[in-house]
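Exercise: predict the fold of this chain.
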Amino acid sequence: MARTKEFDPDAALQAALELFWRRGYEATTMSDLVEHLGIGRASIYATFGNKQDLYLKALDRYTRATGPVLTAELAEPESGLEAVRHVVRRFAAEAGSDEVRFAGCFVTNTAAELGAHDEVLARRVERSWEQLETLLHAALVRARARGELPADRDPQALARMLGVMLQGIRLVGKASSDPARVRDAAEQALALLD
């Protein structure tokens, strides 16, 4: 007869996500995970696999949670340009707040720490960036169709530039104690949309 789990796998995965997000992959040991999750090493392996498998599951959980938020913000039927401005300014404001600043973006953190060394994680990061770029592109196409974006502006190139800039905001925001640095960069990027 199979034993029932004595812990909530969903809560354990969320706890692992928070620990990896705060400390990074390399700095988080299996002993740290055992202590933080409050479950045995064997239970972690049986439920999630090895440390890398658990990290991948945590990254997937993060992207599933943040994707719908961006989709909702950028899919606003009214003004595509205002939706883009809102997202860029939100990223800049969050990067300047101590609450978000020190954690950064889990996808950006993964790219910076592991992207060049782990092909599986690099593909996950790339997929997340492609989703962001697609959402930005759709909003900019809507903006151009409504006359909010000049006809000579390339929505695809702008979406790519904004996506890269948003990841940069998250990274710079982690290290900079000057919120004006990311806020000014965001406003300069937005000026390209006028």
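Check your answer against the key: The mean pLDDT is 90.
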